[in-house]
């Protein structure tokens, strides 16, 4: 019954988000949250055990396989975006710039928050450092959806919009790398076992990706291709949940394997997954929102520091990235303000860590990142207007416009 309530709530919210009731001119902040999917995150928080209690902790425990499937699907989609031909063509300064802006935000957030986490949790220094590293990984991630929507609407030069989107795609590697290291340290009793679990997740993803490429190679019927694709993606998440390894890392390895194979079949696989990307993302963020502890006041106390330090790190990291790039990539002058939106991958990182390394500290990390992601999404709109300053790359819109970010 509770699972049915989850999907009915998401369906109702989807209708609300796509209707004219959320007029961007009257409710710009609410419309942005609906377009980004974070409105579903907030509703998940309200219906979760710590607020209204419509879904109990036992219900959420029963929904863990659904969460694993969502993480696996997100990983596959992320891996499919790693186009090998494009990555080989990129000059080295582009990678250095992505590492610069992501690394700056990481180091602005992670080291300063070690002491507060250690003080509020009472756990070991090792646990506090791991939690701070996850917060830094979440802070390092950015979403390029504001830039993509801006150049689609003619408010930003196409080259600049794609340049921002490219940098935000590359910084995903920083977050995934920190997640892998955190799982190596915390997912097992010793580092050797943790490394084995991470390697098992990657191997599982590679094998599932090779199997999916083989099964879809000769398929011509679109419906059959979609069915096999969804079955293969479900296999990744389901197998990872059964083996208690990272569904997200397994999904990324699966998608990267498919991208490496290439060809028209893989393009059709990507299009098939594109049809379910939005619903899967909405279910995923809803379940993540249900899992937070809204009455953890220590987590609330950490949120201003997380948001403020991340904002400062992104602004300064954007300046550093522009200095490193030189003229290798066309970017707007105030790049850092275009990197404030955090995106859904940050939620995936902390949700995955919470599933595999359960405990009070991982729960606190989840609470901080969820609230911080919503606040960063609200800050991203005004911040992005600093990027769209008067200039030749901007066409002034006649009316405020909010589009759906995917």
UniProtKB/TrEMBL annotation:
<keyword id="KW-1133">Transmembrane helix</keyword>
<feature type="transmembrane region" description="Helical">
    <location>
        <begin position="66"/>
        <end position="82"/>
    </location>
</feature>
<feature type="transmembrane region" description="Helical">
    <location>
        <begin position="195"/>
        <end position="219"/>
    </location>
</feature>
<feature type="transmembrane region" description="Helical">
    <location>
        <begin position="281"/>
        <end position="303"/>
    </location>
</feature>
<keyword id="KW-0472">Membrane</keyword>
<keyword id="KW-0812">Transmembrane</keyword>
<feature type="transmembrane region" description="Helical">
    <location>
        <begin position="163"/>
        <end position="188"/>
    </location>
</feature>
<feature type="transmembrane region" description="Helical">
    <location>
        <begin position="31"/>
        <end position="54"/>
    </location>
</feature>
<feature type="transmembrane region" description="Helical">
    <location>
        <begin position="131"/>
        <end position="151"/>
    </location>
</feature>
<feature type="transmembrane region" description="Helical">
    <location>
        <begin position="94"/>
        <end position="119"/>
    </location>
</feature>
<feature type="transmembrane region" description="Helical">
    <location>
        <begin position="239"/>
        <end position="261"/>
    </location>
</feature>
<protein>
    <submittedName>
        <fullName>Sodium:proton exchanger</fullName>
    </submittedName>
</protein>
């Amino acid at each position: 019954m509770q699972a049915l309530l989850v999907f009915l709530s998401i369906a109702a919210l989807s209708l609300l988000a796509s209707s004219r009731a959320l007029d961007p001119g009257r409710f710009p902040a609410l419309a942005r949250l609906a377009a980004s999917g974070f409105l579903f995150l907030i509703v998940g928080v309200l219906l979760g055990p710590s607020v209204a209690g419509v879904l109990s902790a036992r219900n959420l425990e029963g929904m863990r396989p659904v969460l694993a499937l969502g993480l696996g699907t997100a990983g596959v989609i992320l891996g499919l975006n790693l186009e090998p031909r494009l990555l080989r063509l990129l000059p080295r300064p582009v990678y250095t710039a992505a590492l610069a802006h992501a690394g700056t935000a990481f180091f602005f957030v992670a080291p300063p928050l070690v002491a507060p986490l250690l003080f509020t949790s009472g756990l070991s220094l090792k646990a506090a450092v791991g939690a701070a590293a996850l917060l830094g990984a979440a802070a390092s991630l950015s979403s390029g959806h504001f830039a993509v929507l801006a150049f689609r609407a003619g408010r930003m030069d196409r080259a600049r919009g794609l340049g921002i989107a490219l940098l935000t795609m590359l910084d995903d590697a920083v977050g995934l790398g920190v997640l892998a290291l955190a799982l190596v340290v915390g997912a097992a009793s010793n580092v050797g076992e943790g490394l084995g679990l991470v390697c098992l997740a990657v191997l599982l993803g590679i094998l599932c990706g090779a199997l999916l490429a083989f099964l879809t190679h000769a398929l011509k019927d679109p419906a059959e291709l979609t069915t096999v694709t969804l079955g293969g993606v479900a296999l990744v998440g389901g197998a990872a949940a059964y083996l208690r390894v990272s569904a997200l890392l397994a999904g990324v390895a699966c998608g990267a394997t498919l991208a490496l194979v290439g060809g028209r079949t893989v393009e059709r696989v990507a299009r098939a997954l594109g049809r379910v990307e939005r619903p899967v993302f909405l279910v995923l963020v809803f379940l993540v929102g249900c899992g937070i502890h809204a009455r953890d006041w220590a987590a609330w106390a950490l949120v201003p520091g997380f948001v403020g330090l991340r904002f400062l790190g992104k602004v300064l990291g954007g300046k550093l990235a522009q200095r490193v790039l030189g003229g290798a990539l066309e970017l707007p002058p105030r790049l850092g303000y275009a990197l404030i939106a955090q995106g859904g991958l940050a939620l995936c990182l902390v949700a995955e860590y919470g599933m595999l390394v359960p405990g009070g500290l991982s729960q606190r990390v989840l609470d901080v990142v969820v609230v911080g992601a919503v606040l960063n999404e609200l800050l991203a709109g005004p911040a992005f207007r600093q990027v769209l300053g008067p200039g030749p790359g901007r066409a002034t819109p006649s009316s405020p416009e909010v589009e759906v970010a995917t």
